[in-house]
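Subject: sequence -> structure tokens, single chain

Hey, anyone have a minute? Need the predicted structure for the following. Not urgent.
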Amino acid sequence: MFYEDYRVGQSAHLGARAFTRDAILAFGRAYDPRVLARAEAGGTKLAASGLHVACEAMRAIIDWRDRVQREKIARGEPRPPFGLSPGLKALRWPHPVYEGDSVAFTLTTVALRETRKPHLGLLTNKVIGVNEDGVETLSFTSMVLVARRSS
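Reply:
Had a minute. Here:
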């Protein structure tokens, strides 16, 4: 989408991701050995790495963006180039994600700002993940430079 297509307060439901024991262990083997140590200790439900939850949120954003792009192409609308991201802020995990949990992600536009470059605008989004019980498990703010239609 172009910068002009966004509105402050608009939200997109990005879909949900299931966190199975096998997926949590696979992520742990690849990226976070603390998960494996907790699994070996046994006793309680296995908690996913916070980075695993964040990666699933990013994957949900990419899948949503690609779906929106395909829909625009199918309607014959121009496809904007993908923007660059200056980064994330306030990455938090207020509640653990356990094996068997499903986390639904939502992206909400919280700010739009013009830049010195007439062909780009700065978009700020808040991403939140909520488990099946309605408990927030992840939140962060992301910024992305988005192409302007009127450049």
